[in-house]
Amino acid sequence: MSIEIRGPLELPARREDIELSTSDGLTLVGELALPVDSDPVATLVTLHPLPTAGGFMDSHILRKAAARLPALADLAVLRFNTRGTSSPRGTSDGEFDGGGAEQFDVAAAMEFVRERALPRPWLLGWSFGTELALKYGREHDIEGIILLSPPLHRATEAEVAAWAQSDREVVVLVPELDDYLRPPEAETRFASIPHARLIAVEGGKHLWVGESQTRRVLTEVVAAVNPSALPLPTHWPAA
Asked: How many CB atoms lie under 10 A from the CB of residue 154?
């Protein structure tokens, strides 16, 4: 008997509560989820939405990525609370810095990836997290960035355009009905990165509410990182 994969269902994974240490002396709390019976083929380092608007490591798309993708796509999923952010996992040291000192948080996550020898890291940012990916991702050894609902409030034109000089992949998911940046404007704002792949999601909204939107987002993430795992099963155990 199989059950439909939807909502908060958590599929099997090796889950470990972790701590990240920043170069400015803070401890950040997080979780690493790994496939149960195999090594991961790639790694998602997730960057959550704006903490002052309720974003944290358990924001639903990131929580569902960690709940599903180790089992469905052989991915490692690293989630953590940026400085000053709280979740049921705990509260990270420090205070929200508007995307400035969070540079050290991204670096701490990438240092953890190096220490654990996690393979083929990608940054997966959502909303505020996309700003961190755009501003600081080029400093690190990553295969690419995946941007969900990028508002482009903090990343400057120069920081966006700098990705044109990088061979790292840039995948941008823009909801048709986004509150901040919709597909036509996104095409203009990301035109400075010729190799960026912009995906306009019909009917999508900034928060990706609903199982159909969740499945679309996770499918596009896996299409970028491990396309051989597609199509993602809708039931568990998978047939």
From this structure: 17
- CA dihedral 231→61→73→220, nearest 10 degrees, is 50
Q: How many CB atoms lie within 10 A of CB 21?
A: 14
Query: pLDDT tens-digit profile of 142-162?
Result: 999 999 999 999 999 999 999
Assigned token pair, 177: 């009905």
Residue 106 backbone dihedrals phi, psi, to 5 degrees = -60, -45
Task: Taking residues 84-112, report their average pLDDT.
Answer: 98
Give strand ranges (E) for 35-100.
42-47, 75-80, 86-87, 90-91
The two three-digit tokens of residue 18, written as one number: 């972790």
First-residue to last-residue Cα distance in the chain: 10
CB atoms within 10 A of CB 175: 25
Q: What percent of the chain has pLDDT over 90?
A: 99
Continuous segment of H or E residues that includes residue 109: helix 102-115
Residue corresponding to tokens 């095409």:
187
pLDDT band at 29 (very low <50, low <70, confident <90, very high): very high
